[in-house]
Amino acid sequence: MSDAAVPATVLVFSHRAEVRAAVRTALGRSPAADVGPLTYVECATGDEVVAAVDAGGIDLCVLDGEAQPTGGMGISRQLTDEIADRPALVLLIARQADRWLAHWSLADASLGYPIDPLTAADVVAGLLRDRASRRPARR
Description:
Blueprint: E1 6-13, H1 17-27, E2 35-43, H2 46-55, E3 60-64, H3 72-82, E4 88-93, H4 99-104, E5 109-112, H5 117-134
């Protein structure tokens, strides 16, 4: 991979606008020098998430495990079961006790909410680097 930063599209899902804003603020435009700029797609419903991922172009999803009426855990599991080359999945959890549910959801990582910007940037940058390294080289 070159030294140029890798652009990525990040889907942020929550029924609450303040959670979506917190994720965008924590990650910023570029979570690491070699990752970004990030483009955000916001979704407030599970159906919007599935449609956006089906349409393609999403590199990573940050899913609110507390979203209503459809939670991010179920959506994570659904995307894993239904999409062969699904985006990387990060689950927001409000309680440490929910880590087992995050594991059940087959998400690639989980983050506590309220979101820690340093931890979030590290986790997201690592997942995006991994995804970029698996892409075929462009000519």
